[in-house]
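stage 2 :: seqdesign
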C-alpha cells in the first residue's frame, strides 16, 4: 500500500505537468499519425518545425525561391553556393528547418499564436460540446439519443485504442510485480506513470464520447495560420542568401570561370601566345591550379590574403613560365597578377577578406543586428551603386527604416531623416542597438552586408575604419 500511496501522491504533486503532457500527447500525437514528424519540444523552434512540414515547404521550394530572386545566372551560381556557402549547405542538408537560426528573430510571437489558437479551440470545442450533450440528457428523447451515441462512440474508442489500453494494462501488471518484490521506488514511479497514461486516454475518451474527430486536420489548420509570418521570415532570410549567391553571379559574369584559364587578354598577350604555345599551355596549367588550390582555402565565398599569397608563391615556384605571381585587389574581386612576358591577370572566385589589427572586432557579429535590414534592390535608381552594382541611396534607406522600425528613432532623428540627413546615435537608438553604445552622438550610415543588396545601419566610425575590408579591395 505504501507504493500505491506514494504513486498517487507523486501524481497529485505533478498533476499540472501530467495534464500538460497528456494534452500534448493527445493533440500532437494525432499529428504523428498523420505523417508529421514531431519536434523534441513544443517551443518556438518546435512550432517552426511543424509549420514548415504542414505548409509543405521543402529544400527544393527554398532553392527555387532563391534562384528566382537571383535572376540570370542563379541556377549556376546556386550550384556553386551549395558547395561553398555554409548556410546553403545547411539548408540543403537539414531542409527548411535549417533556416531557424536566421529566421527566429522574425518569429518571436509564433509559439504564442499557435498555442493560444489550440487552447481556444480545445476550450470552445470540448467544453461547449460536452455541456451541450449534458443538457441534451435532461430530456427523455435527448437521453435516449445521447445514450445510443455514447455507446457507439465508447465501442469505437476501445476498438481504436486497443494497443494503448493494452500498454496501460501491462504497466499496471508491471507495477504489481514490483510491489510483490518489494521494489517500492520503481513501483511508485510505475503507478505515477500509469496514472499519467490513463489521463491521456481519459482525454481521448471524452473527445470520442462527444464525437470529436479529425484532430490532425484541426491542429494543422491552426498551425497553418502562421503561414504569413513564416513566409515573411523565409522571404527575409532568402533575400539575404540571394545576396550571397548574387556575389557568385557577379564573379562569374565578371570574367571568372571561363573554362580552364582565366586572364584578361590584350593584343600583346595574344601575340605572345601564338609565338609560345608550349609556354602558354604551361601558363594555363598554372592558372588552373590556382583555382584548385583555392577550393581548399575558401570559406563562405571568401579567402584570406595570407592564403591567397601562399597560393601565388606555390604556383610561381612550380611553373617556371611565371616571372612573377602576386595578389592584388581589382574592383570587387581578388586578382592574381602574373608576368610571363606581357602582363596578365587571373580572376579568382573569392573576395579578399582579412581582419585588420585594431580595437574593432570582425563584422558582422559585433555591430550588426539582422532584424534591422532593408533590401536596397527596391531603392529608386540614383545611379549610385556599390562595386557589385547594388543600389546606394541613403535618404531612401533611412525613410524605409523609419517606416518599418519607428521605435528606433526619437523626434530629432525623425526630423533629420525627413531632411534627407543620416540620423545620430542617441539614447533611444542605444536601447534597441546596445552594441552601438560606444558611439553615442556619432553619425549612422547604411552598409551593404557581405557586399550584397541587403543594407543595415552601422556607426560611421566603424564604417570608416573597416571600409577597406567591408567593401572591394582597391587596385594597387
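stage 2 :: out
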Amino acid at each position: 500500500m505504501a507504493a500505491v500511496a506514494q504513486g498517487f501522491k507523486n501524481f497529485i504533486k505533478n498533476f499540472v505537468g501530467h495534464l500538460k503532457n497528456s494534452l500534448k500527447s493527445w493533440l500532437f500525437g494525432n499529428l504523428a499519425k498523420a505523417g508529421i514528424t514531431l519536434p523534441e519540444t513544443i517551443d518556438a523552434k518546435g512550432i517552426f518545425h511543424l509549420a514548415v512540414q504542414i505548409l509543405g515547404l521543402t529544400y527544393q521550394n527554398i532553392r527555387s525561391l532563391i534562384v528566382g530572386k537571383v535572376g540570370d545566372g542563379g541556377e549556376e551560381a546556386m550550384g556553386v553556393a551549395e558547395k561553398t556557402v555554409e548556410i546553403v549547405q545547411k539548408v540543403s542538408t537539414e531542409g527548411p528547418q535549417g533556416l531557424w537560426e536566421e529566421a527566429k528573430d522574425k518569429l518571436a510571437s509564433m509559439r504564442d499564436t499557435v498555442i493560444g489558437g489550440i487552447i481556444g479551440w480545445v476550450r470552445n470545442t470540448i467544453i461547449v460540446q460536452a455541456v451541450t450533450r449534458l443538457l441534451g440528457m435532461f430530456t427523455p428523447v435527448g437521453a435516449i439519443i445521447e445514450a445510443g451515441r455514447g455507446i457507439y462512440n465508447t465501442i469505437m474508442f476501445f476498438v481504436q485504442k486497443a494497443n494503448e489500453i493494452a500498454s496501460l494494462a501491462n504497466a499496471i501488471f508491471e507495477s504489481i510485480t514490483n510491489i510483490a518484490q518489494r521494489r517500492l521506488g520503481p513501483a511508485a514511479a510505475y503507478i505515477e506513470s500509469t496514472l499519467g497514461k490513463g489521463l491521456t486516454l481519459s482525454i481521448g475518451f471524452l473527445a470520442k464520447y462527444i464525437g470529436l474527430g479529425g484532430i490532425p486536420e484541426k491542429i494543422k489548420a491552426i498551425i497553418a495560420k502562421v503561414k504569413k509570418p513564416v513566409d515573411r521570415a523565409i522571404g527575409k532570410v532568402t533575400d539575404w542568401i540571394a545576396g550571397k549567391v548574387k556575389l557568385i553571379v557577379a564573379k562569374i559574369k565578371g570574367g571568372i570561370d571561363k573554362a580552364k584559364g582565366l586572364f584578361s587578354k590584350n593584343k600583346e598577350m595574344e601575340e605572345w601566345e601564338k609565338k609560345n604555345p608550349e609556354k602558354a599551355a604551361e601558363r594555363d596549367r598554372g592558372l588552373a591550379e590556382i583555382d584548385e588550390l583555392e577550393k581548399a582555402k575558401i570559406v563562405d565565398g571568401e579567402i584570406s590574403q595570407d592564403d591567397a599569397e601562399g597560393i601565388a608563391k606555390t604556383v610561381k615556384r612550380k611553373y617556371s613560365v611565371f616571372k612573377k605571381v602576386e595578389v592584388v585587389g581589382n574592383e570587387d574581386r581578388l586578382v592574381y597578377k602574373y608576368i610571363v612576358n606581357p602582363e596578365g591577370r587571373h580572376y579568382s572566385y573569392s573576395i579578399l577578406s582579412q581582419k585588420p589589427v585594431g580595437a574593432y572586432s570582425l563584422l558582422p557579429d559585433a555591430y550588426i543586428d539582422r532584424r534591422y535590414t532593408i533590401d536596397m534592390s527596391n531603392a529608386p535608381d540614383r545611379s549610385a551603386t556599390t562595386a557589385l552594382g547594388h543600389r546606394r541611396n541613403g535618404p531612401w534607406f533611412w525613410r524605409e527604416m523609419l517606416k518599418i522600425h519607428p521605435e528606433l528613432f526619437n523626434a530629432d532623428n525623425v526630423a533629420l531623416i525627413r531632411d534627407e540627413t543620416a540620423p545620430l546615435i542617441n539614447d533611444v537608438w542605444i536601447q534597441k542597438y546596445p552594441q552601438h553604445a560606444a558611439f553615442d552622438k556619432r553619425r549612422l550610415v547604411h552598409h551593404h552586408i557581405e557586399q550584397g543588396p541587403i543594407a543595415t545601419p552601422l556607426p560611421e566610425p566603424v564604417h570608416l575604419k573597416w571600409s577597406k575590408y567591408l567593401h572591394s579591395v582597391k587596385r594597387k
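stage 3 :: structure notes
- The CA atoms of residues 271 and 342 lie 10 Å apart.
- The longest strand covers residues 324-330.
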